[in-house]
Amino acid sequence: MPRKLDECRRLQKRAEQLIPGGVSSPVRAFKAVECDAPFIVRGQGSHIWDADGNEYIDYVGSWGPLILGHAEPNVVEAILSAAVNGTSFGASTPAEADLAELVIEAFPTLQKVRFVSSGTEATMSAIRLARAYTKRKYVIKFEGCYHGHADSLLVKAGSGVATLGIPGSAGVLEEVSQFTIALPFNDTEVLEQAFSKYRHMIACVIVEPVVGNMGCVPAEGDYLANLRTITQREKTVLIFDEVMTGFRVAYGGAQELYGIKPDLTTLGKIIGGGLPVGAYGGRSEIMDLVAPLGPMYQAGTLSGNPIAVTAGRATLGVLKNSSIYNDLEERSAEFAAGVRAAAEKHNVSIAFNRVGSMWTLFFTDAPVVDFESANRSNREKFARFFHLMLGEGVYLPPSQMEAAFFSAAHAKKDILQLIERVDRVLKKIAWEFEKSARGKKRRLPTRSADSGVLDRCTALEHYFAFCWFF
After folding, report:
1. Alpha-carbon distance 411 to 348, whole Å?
2. pLDDT digits (tens, 9 = 90+) for 404-424
3. How far apart, in whole angstroms, are the C-alpha atoms of residue 140 and residue 180?
4. What gap in Å lies between CA 104 and CA 316, rounded to an integer?
């Protein structure tokens, strides 16, 4: 059925008068897909509802934290029980140590962990700690990897930076970014060259072991093992940014999945159960440099917030004592097979990347293994795909450069419906772009100026008007 967005548009106009761009994070503006963004008012299980009452099946999951789905009863009950006792104390609480114990148990490379309030704080603190430990300046990161918005990390970054097509960020000083070396992902030879050039000068290498911020891009072959070997040889700290992959691709994150042991790990998203939490941890030898034990200073008023760590404790408790990861793998594999079959049937070139329950469908005829190959994807096709899927009631990341997620709340019927809808949409895309390639130079717009309707676009409507109801 048609979807009206009148109230969402009204809310957007109001927000734009009060908040830059009307959003608190750039990707929420839907600029990459030229679409009016739904204002979400409620979520339950695998579904969300916008301010106009439109219902969607959600495959964003708040960008990864909601592995149990929206308003999971155990998490909601934990939040409510914590809130009635107070929302913040600026002091240590028992729940903080409880969550630390669960995290350390899941990640054997962590002997100690420190909580912060975001993934950005976690990566920023881990890099500062690596520099304190090695007494070196340079940091290696990888093109397309996003580690938060700290100045030194906004160099050839992914996520919203890549979505908006900007090289970095205004306001980042050269004096800061000059100590960040950005290298292509999945290229061991280039990594060796960097260590040869900056020998005994590199404090750390930070990497998303499964990249999620240029779409889902896994490490190839022995790449992570090579990374570990090289950093150990060079006495350089290896930081796994598992803000996205931690408790997502496995209970013990990507380091459990691949059997690689980093020196430091950063976490976030899932460990807060949908509330703001970040963490960094590693061997005691390194972590004991953090104040008050050592000279590396890091602090935060809301670090270890009692409501957030209680939500995290409840989330990890459910994940630890269930078959969720096996179920997620089964459903994710079924979806991957269905998408590939649909693309082949309709002769649409795609690269479908997946690790566990995180995935991206790239519109390209070549494998996506790094930032360069991700950037060669057809963003016009992705935007059209996004619009048609939204019209089908499917809420996906509004950017080719972001990963999507399954949750435990997605039932088998959700996956089967998703495959059917993807099949239907890919058929439409194949027809539209084939017609365009035959000489119809008419641009394929994705929205009109005066319509408030998201349309399911029947074949008949396509034939007469192309029905661009955005």
Report:
1. 27
2. 999 999 999 999 999 999 999
3. 6
4. 12
Residue 102 CA from chain centroid, whole number = 23
Task: Give the CA-trace dihedral at 33, 36, 39, 42, to 10 degrees.
Answer: -60
| Active-site amino acid positions | 146, 241, 269
Tell me the backbone φ, ψ of residue 134, rounded to 5 degrees: -95, -20
pLDDT at residue 427 in the model: 97
Put residue 30 in one of left, alpha, beta given phi > 0 → left and psi -120 to 50 → alpha.
Answer: left
Q: Which residue has the tokens 């409620």?
A: 42
Query: What are the tens digits of pLDDT across the range 356-390?
Result: 999 999 999 999 999 999 999 999 999 999 999 99
138: which residues sit within 8 A by CB, 6+ positions away? 179, 180, 181, 198, 201, 202, 203
Let me know: does 278 contact 70? Beta carbons within 8 Å: no
Q: For the chain, which domains are there?
A: 3-70+323-465 (3.90.1150.10), 73-320 (3.40.640.10)
Cα 176 from Cα 10, distance rounded (Å): 41
Alpha carbon of residue 133 to chain centroid: 29
Bridge partners (DSSP) of residue 354 are 359
pLDDT over 60 at 456, yes or no: no
Q: Burial, 44: exposed, middle or buried (Cβ in 10 Å; 0-12, 13-18, 19+)?
A: middle
Which residues lie closer than 8 Å to 332 by C-beta, 6 or more apart?
354, 356, 357, 359, 406
Q: Exposed/middle/buried for 366, CB within 10 Å: 0-12, 13-18, 19+?
A: exposed
Cβ contacts of residue 293 below 8 Å, gap of 6+? Answer: none
Distance CA 376, CA 163 (A): 13
Backbone angles phi, psi at 437, to 5 degrees: -70, -20
pLDDT of residue 434: 78
